[in-house]
Amino acid sequence: MQTNLITINSVEKTAIFSRIRLLQKEIINVRVSDIQQGHNAALELFTLSEKIGYQLGIAEAKIMFAAYQYFRTSNIEQALLYLEEAFHILDNEKEQSDSLPWAYSIKGNIAWRMGDFDEGFTNMQKSLEIAKKINEPNSLAWGTYLVGGFYVEMKDYDKARDCHIDALRQFEIINDVEGYSSSLAGLGNIHLALNEYESAITCYEEALSIVNQHDMKTIKARIYNDLGV
Q1: What 3-state class would DSSP assign to 51?
Q2: Domains, the chain, ranges and CATH?
């Protein structure tokens, strides 16, 4: 009888792990484009990971919780708390998390927003460095794009342009429409800063065509804001 119980528990644990793997992939795919969906997946990931004591899953869920608190509710204090808890878990885990670059990216965004540019840039570079090391395509593309944004703020337009062009290539490979259009808009901003108006308009028009086709209102509003419309 005891043997049957162990077998049933083993089967259940295998099923839970299979579901966890799917949730981890889902979060990576939607964490930027649909934060609400990512948060919902993280809630389930957290519950299942707690059930079997899977610390990596708990940490990755907390990273998504941090993203939700920061990007959706602007609760910086709670976002930083979730990140601190996630980093504490990951520091003691041997298994590498594909969400670690995302965690440093969020931390960098928060530092930038709070006026600590150097801290923000340091964290964003660390995010990109880890993404390259683990070769996680989604984090690599977004990390390249976001580092490019910091170079724009530093008025180092050559490095900014290189980052955005590289990000465009990567977003195209992983078929990330939101990232691709964001990079195009970013390139438009760089051309505009360099008084390269025709090139800027070309980038903006292509980006607007994509966002209109996919009904991406946030990016559309950002482009119009950059154009002063």
Answers
A1: helix
A2: 141-229 (1.25.40.10)
